[in-house]
Every structure is written in C-alpha cells, then in structure tokens.
Amino acid sequence: MLEKIFKLKKFDSDPKTEVLAGITTYLTMAYIIFVNPAMLADAGMDKGAVFVATCLAAAIGCFIMGFWANLPVALAPGMGLNAFFTYGVVLGMGHTWQTALGAVFLSGIIFMLLSAFKLREWIINAIPNTLKKAIAAGIGGFLALIALKNSGIIVDHPATLVGLGDLTSLTPAMALLSFFLVITLVKRQIPGAVMIAVLAVTVLGLLFGDVSYNGIMSAPPSIMPTFMAMDVAAALDVALLSVIFAFLFVDLFDTSGTLIAVTERAGLVKADGKVPRLKAALMADSSATMVGSVLGTSSTTSYIESAAGVAAGGRTGLTAVTVGILFLLSMFFAPLAGMIPVYATAGAILYVSVLMMHTLKDVDWEDLTEAAPVVVVFLLTPLTFSIAHGITLGFITYAVVKALAGKADELTPSVWILAGLLLLKVIFVG
Fold this sequence. Notes:
The protein is mainly α. It has helices at 2-6, 15-29, 32-41, 47-69, 81-90, 97-116, 120-126, 129-150, 170-187, 193-207, 232-235, 241-266, 278-295, 306-311, 317-330, 334-339, 342-357, 368-383, 387-404, 413-428, and strands at 75-77, 154-157, 161-164, 300-302. The longest helix has 26 residues, at 241-266.
C-alpha cells in the first residue's frame, strides 16, 4: 500500500526511515503550535480555536503535500506572516481579524491561480534577487522587534521612542534565557531543540509561580470561534490590496525557496535544475493557505525545517504525512499550549529571525543601488510594523535609484509595472 502511494523503492527508502524523518521534522517545527496561537490571540482571536486551527491546517497541508506532490516537505502557519497578520494588519491598520483572514483566503486563491496558469515564474522573476533577500531579512527584523517588545526587553520611551526595559525583571530575563537555550541546543544539534527550550522555560515559570498549571492533555478546544469567520467581502477593499499581495509575495517566495532548498538537499532536483512535481507542491501550499484561513489561522506555508527530516533520510511524501499525523495528535495538548508564557516563545521567535537575516550576507554591499533598497526594506519593515510597507517602499526605492544612477537597463518591465502600481498605492491609498 505505502509502496504504491509513495514509491519508496524508487527513492531508495523504506517506511521506517520515512517515519523517523517525519518525527525529526515535526520536532524542529512543533514550536509553531505554541507560538501561532499566542500571536493571533493578540489580534483578538480565541486562543484555543487558533490552536486547533494551527494543528489542523498544518496536518491538512502536510497530507496534501505528501499524498499529492509526494515530497518530504511539511507545512504549517508561517512565522512572519502570522506576525504581519496580527501586528501589521489588525493592530497596525485597524482591520478586524475576520477581514485579515479574508485577505489570507484571497491570497491563497491568487497563489493557486498563479500556480495553475504558470504565472508564478513572472511574479518570481519580477522581484529582483536583491529584494527577495531584503524581504526575508526585513521579516526577520520584524519578528525580532515583536519578540523584544512583547517580552519587555524593548519598551516605549517618550524622549527616544524606544528604550531598554528592565532586564532584571522576570519576563525580559526569562525571554533572554529562552533565546540562549534555543541557540545552545540548536548549535549542539539536540533533536527538538526549540521545543525543549520553550518547555524548559515554561517549567521555570511554573516553579517561579508565574505560570498556572492547567494540565497536559484534554479534548481539543472548539474551533467554532474562528471556523468560517473570515470576511472576504471586507478584504476586497482597495486599501487591502497591498496586504493581500504582501501575504501572497511572502508565501510565494518562502515556498519556492523552501522547495528548492529541501529538494536539493534530498537529491531530488532534476538534471535541468527543476524541482520535481513543482506544480503539485505549489498547489498544495496554496490549498493549505485557503483551508487554514477557513479554519481560522494565517497563511500556511512550506517549512525550511523540513531539511532536518531530509537529513534524517526522508525522500517521499510519507515523511510529510507522518508530520501531519503528529500535528493531529498535538490537538490533544491544548492545556500545555495554553500555559506557554510569552517569554518562553520569545526565544523561538528570535531564533527564527536570526535564520531569516542570514540572507544579508549575499547582498552586494559595494553597489549602492543594490544596498540602498535592502536597507530600506530591512529597516522599514520592522519600524513600520508592516511587511507590506517594507515591500512597497523597497520596490519604489529599487526602481528610482537604479533609474537615477543610470542603471535603468537593469530594470525589467515587470519591475517598472509593479513599482508604478505601488507608488500609486502610496499616493492615493497610503
């Protein structure tokens, strides 16, 4: 049965190897079941419902990827996109979380259409490599600022806008400890390093009397507070166009980059450099995003942590299916997820931000027309609390500085079109 579905012999694998690879991948990305509900709860969403939605969206995404695309790539609600959802769209722009879910749903539809009609290449090629690197780093900075702010390490200041919080108080101190633990355990290649660090700091919170024990397991909470709550009609407002495309761009780049990286690591990339069953993989990702928004969570995307499972021998969709099953089982650990304090997840968020900022090393810093747009995106994404603003201003800066510096020949027609549209959006919409 498994051989017929996943063609294990063709990929020189076996069920035991694939299952162990799936467990490995799950352990590296399970932190999302704690982090995602905590973030979306700040948007006013029911934490228990989001927890269930997170587990279900991840499971469904993994099943679609495993059974349809037959690739060892796991999916779950994406870091960065969940932060943009809460702190950018809902708290920053003042939209309801229902409207934000509608925007996520629409981005999933557009993603699916782009994948189905092979327009994905045009979009990806329209974004210069420099800006792709900048967007990833900008999201990393965005995540870092959120973690530092929520844990009280960075606080508001009337004179200087921001300042350093009291690092001797419990929350900032525990957040720093969480970060140090994550980095140490990851560096020592401890399986499930991030999850171990989150749980260890939570236990310390219990011992210090800051966290109340609510049990470990129970029946899953009701998903009804968020199920089918999305407001698609409100998301069709012209003011939300940049939000929809921000969700779309980030998901598209993340997914494409992850698929390339993971399949290369697995030795699955074809001789011509193409990712096998790419269309099916992209359709799986976009479908998972649409399903996730219906359930009540932000964009679902492919996880680079899948590389850990590949390193453990995963070569087929059975790895992804295993991860999906484990996410389903995770739904019974809602009391544990509910106990996780903000400082316990801060380390995980900061760790992800570090990983995302590594793209800065590939920037040509000697060329000011390349460096300037990167700096704009990297600084303004966190400082405006908006991925959409970061992408918008980065695009405009890239086109303007290239044109004025006599390098207009480096600008493709698609860059001109997108930069012009984004400029009009800034002028007339804000």
